[in-house]
Design a protein that fits this description.
The chain is built from 3 helices and 8 strands; from the N terminus they run E-E-H-E-H-E-E-E-E-E-H. By secondary structure, it is mainly beta. It folds into 2 domains: 89 residues, Chitinase A, domain 3 (Roll), CATH 3.10.50; 49 residues, Thrombin, subunit H (Beta Barrel), CATH 2.40.10. The strands form 2 sheets. Strands 2-1-8-3 form a 4-stranded antiparallel sheet. Strands 4-7-6-5 form a 4-stranded antiparallel sheet, with no helix packed on it. A hairpin with a 5-residue loop joins strand 1 and strand 2. The chain is elongated and about 55 Å long. The C terminus is likely disordered.
């Protein structure tokens, strides 16, 4: 019998997040993501609860209300600026920009639109205000080592991935 996910187990999984209304895939990971269950929350708490008791090979779908988790969209966090004012390395949709306000608080913004003369960034979580479905496939479940428990995840070296092979999902 396979090991089941519970606190202290090392778990590897892949997932895909789909917008419930449009069916559009918003994000996902194809290379297994590893974590120690109960030691670090890498996904929404409701997703972790649904993983409890699952085994390697299980595939589950978990609907989430992004508005409940991340709140409603705040349009004051959306900014458009002239392209000439934006450094070249930020002129691509999907690029994340860490910004700091005058109080020293940081927030991650994502480039959402690049036009001929303007660029738009958005500080809202991409899942806020959306109903989404997490589709998860459990790849590995085993007892975590002490080192993994301390680190909250895998202690193995990251895979050597050729950046030219990466593609958005």
């Amino acid at each position: 019998m396979s090991e089941a996910i519970h606190d202290g187990k090392f778990v590897e999984l892949t997932y895909r997040v789909t917008d419930r209304k449009s069916g559009q895939v918003l994000t996902g990971v194809e290379f297994p993501l590893g974590y120690v269950h109960g030691h670090n929350e890498i996904l929404a708490p409701s997703v972790h609860r649904e993983l409890e008791g699952r085994c390697a090979g299980d595939v589950i779908e978990v609907p989430l209300d992004g508005q409940r988790i991340f709140g409603t969209r705040d349009e004051s966090l959306v900014f458009t600026d002239e392209l000439q004012n934006v450094p070249e390395e930020y002129r691509q949709v999907g690029v994340s920009i860490l910004m700091e306000n005058d109080r020293g608080e940081t927030r991650s913004f994502i480039v959402t639109r690049v036009g001929d003369t303007t660029l738009t960034i958005d500080g809202n979580n991409p899942l806020c205000g959306r109903e989404v479905v997490f589709r998860l496939e459990v790849v590995t479940v085993r007892e975590a080592t002490d080192e993994e428990k301390q680190a909250g995840g895998s202690t193995a070296a990251a895979p050597d991935i050729d950046p030219s092979m990466l593609r958005p999902v």
